[in-house]
Amino acid sequence: MYLVIAAGLIEAALVCLVNMAGSVVESILLLLLVQPVYLFAVHRVFTRSGCKPWFIIAAGVVFRITVITLPSPFTDDLTRYRWEARVHQAGLNPYESRPSDPQLQRFRDSTSDRIPAPEFRAAYGPAWELLGSWTLRLTGSWARTPQSQLMWMKLPAIAFDLGAIGALLLLLKFRNIPSDRVLVYAWSPLAVWEFWANGHNDAVVLFFMIAALAAIAKSPRNWRGGALLGVAIATKWWPAILLPAITRHTWSIRPILLSGAVLAVFALPFLTDVTENAQFMTGFVGGWRNNDSLFGFLLYLTSGALYHAKYLAFTLMGLMALWLATRDWPLERIALWTIVTMLLLSANCHPWYLTWIVPFLAIFPHPSLLLWVGLIPLAYESQIAWQISGIWEGSPTSRWCVYVPVFIMMTWESARAVQRGLRNNAEMPSERRFVLENAKAPDIIVDE
């Protein structure tokens, strides 16, 4: 009964969002107000299991259908997806083309002024470039106008978001976790908003990443996990940071070989010099600031030298990924904190990037991370000045209204975890401690 009421409240809030499409301030407030209802539903699922997964998924689909017609309220990424798809369909290489190129004026239309970063070449992975091109080719037969084509460019996000729900159900099954915890992702206002309203392609990455982890959970030595992760990397590059953890978990270098082979297959049609593309792509870590947290501290340590802070962030991310890979934790927990570390150290943390951690919270529901996901709509404050005056301020002081509570909660969680660890270690029989401390892991192998 409580979940039914929560579902009704979430749906009512989404209907209000649709009715005030384009109203940035009101939309942010509604996204914030719906978070306590969502968190209450998450709490009920973890404390009183037994809710039917079919109801959870059906309600999640209703939430999504409600906002599907919204015209990408807080982002212009769909215009970039469409432009690159049109360039590829014309036989050009999107990794060699810029929207601002004078020789590409024939691709200009009523949406061109909204394309993000028009002076830069494509930076998404080759799998996405192919998928975007196929989507436009498929839908172009009935979507004739630029605006209708933009709407249909949401199709990959819609399809793979639903697929991510299914992949998460499989992962929960293989980990012997109650399937009703799929609610954490299926009812997440952030996932609903970012994939079905804004149409971000991160849903494609999520599907293949969660499917890879599910395949590994079912059979660690199976080839499917590495291949699926390869597709995720070929869509957006960042899942490569999970390779150390997966290699350590499976005790095999096969995931690296398979993911590299899959990436190579997707990249073959686009081979060219991508030095400039890579420089733009690494701006995610340290090229421009947007809703950053710890990156500001790194910038302070390097006396404001942006590139030095960027290299330091890359170094810390790599070291943390390697250190986390050595932990005797479940693979999903290692993946979660690897991604969290990457987002905290990056100079750029768009709200939709937090969808990357939401599926993991169905397994490890850390209050600090749920709080982060709940408060992240505040980061859309920068849209207010952008829409009014065209001035982008991606790192306002107000972002600490998100990060200060999150860091306080993380500190509290860490202190409690240390306290529990000390207590458990003190209570553990000495002979069991000796066995655990001297246990040796098998050597890394290529084949079974």
Question: In a few lines, what is going on in this structure?
Answer:
The chain has helices at residues 2-19, 24-47, 53-67, 77-89, 126-139, 146-152, 155-174, 183-186, 189-197, 202-218, 224-235, 243-250, 254-267, 275-281, 283-286, 294-301, 306-325, 331-345, 367-375, 382-389, 400-427, 430-437. The protein has 448 residues and is an all-alpha fold. Helix 1 runs antiparallel to helix 2 and helix 5 (126-139) packs across helix 11 (224-235).
Task: Explain what the structure shows.
By secondary structure, this protein is mostly helical. Among the domains are: 77-152, no CATH class; 287-410, no CATH class. 63% of the residues lie in helices and 0% in strands. It has 22 helices and no strands. α5 (126-139) crosses α11 (224-235).
Key words describing this protein structure:
448 residues, 0% strand, mainly alpha, disordered C terminus, globular, single chain, 22 helices
The percentage helix is 55-70%
Q: Could you say which overall geometry the principal axes of the C-alpha atoms support?
A: globular
Distance between the termini: 50 Å
The major sheet is characterized as: none
Beta-strand proportion: under 5%
Uncertain segments: 434-448
What layout of secondary structure does this protein have?
Blueprint: H1 2-19, H2 24-47, H3 53-67, H4 77-89, H5 126-139, H6 146-152, H7 155-174, H8 183-186, H9 189-197, H10 202-218, H11 224-235, H12 243-250, H13 254-267, H14 275-281, H15 283-286, H16 294-301, H17 306-325, H18 331-345, H19 367-375, H20 382-389, H21 400-427, H22 430-437
